[in-house]
Design a protein that fits this description.
The chain is α+β, with helices and mostly antiparallel strands. The protein folds into two domains: 218 residues, no CATH class; 146 residues, Heat Shock Protein 90 (2-Layer Sandwich), CATH 3.30.565. Helix content is 67%, strand content 11%. A five-stranded mixed sheet has the order 3-4-5-9-8, with helices on one face. A two-stranded antiparallel sheet has the order 1-2. A two-stranded antiparallel ribbon has the order 6-7. Strand 4 and strand 5 form a beta hairpin. Helix 1 runs parallel beside helix 6, helix 4 runs antiparallel to helix 8 and helix 7 runs antiparallel to helix 8. The protein is elongated.
Length: 429
Amino acid sequence: MDSVFIFLCHTAGTALSLVIGFLFMKVLDCCLVRRHGKLVSLIGILGYGMVSTTVIFPQDMLNICFIVILFLLLNSILYKGKWVIKLSLIVILFPIFTALNFLSFDVTGKIFFQFYTMQDKLENAFFSNSQYLILIPFWLFFYRYFRRPLEKIRDIFTNQAWGITCVVCTASFIALFSCVYLSPFQDSYFVWPCMMACIIANIGSIHLASYLADGLYANLERKNLQLQQTYYTELEKNQRQIRKLYHDINNHLSVVGHLLKEENFAEAQVYFQEISSYIQVSNRKFCENSVVNAVLNAKYQLITEAEIDGFFHISIDGMMFIDDVSLCTIFANTLDNAVEACRKISAPSQRKIELKCRYTDNGYFNFSLINSKNNDIILKKGQYLSDKQDKQLHGIGISSVKTIVEKYQGTLDISYDTETFRVTILIEG
């Protein structure tokens, strides 16, 4: 009869470990994109069930190293995305579940074996399952409470922000290894405070990261408001220009009529071309996005005033996965750099800017900007430097674009020769 109960206890323990593995994988889903397939989910539940429930004993360095390696392999195989995020989640979560398992087993064990012996297999089976009464509520609470903060961190954090979070949590990671290595078998309660500190510190780090994400989001919202203001300012400016043109249209027609009457055809043609150019520049519609269109109109105006031969082909209608702030940052910074480079060319006929941007049928954002140049390109510590008088502005434009591309896990390619400079961006939706 005891053997039946022991079998049922072990079966229940296996099922409960799978529940914990499922909850733990849902936590990872908040920050990483899981690969598709039922087999992936099954491997994840089994693997993370083992990772998140393995008890580390004092001086058990072999087991703790095995769990770290297994955790790393599971993250790399089952999830897509950046390595910095995968590694950061290991450094953040490993001290939490390892210290929790250590404490739950050690504390309950010292209490349990005050009343029972270790020789009874049925008692040991019950005791082994008692750990799950702590682990399941913890991971259920952890997922429900930290799901939104983790998703917010995922959406806003750059590689640098993830790296900083990883460095902060490394202290708990190292402290955990030290506690396990130095912990005595009999008096393991000496390391309980350190284990609790690892859990609290890394949970606090998640709170801190969420707070930083809120700050970054607020900054993005502020930039969005600025872009909206830019849009309305540009719209108002265009409307004033149109009203002025309509008001003066009779005068313009009178001038053209007078020139034609005097048979001054060449001057009449030049005057007519100026009016036509004015109308075209003031009323261009590059795309359906009003904010982006306003920014493009402003930059095209700069291109026209600088006597640059500009060509824009924009086809991004229907694209939703890149926010307006990010789009405007890409367009504004790259075009500003291109205009700056073209202005340094003395001959207007050699000043050229070609911008092609489209949202493809298979869900890719494809951006290509080519501009002429005659200045030297300076690359220092991975930053492209200009020869602006304000040294603090060096490389800011390209750096901002790079941050946006990293945020959306895209690719940024910069190439140049003696006469041209090319920026190519590819982001998958």
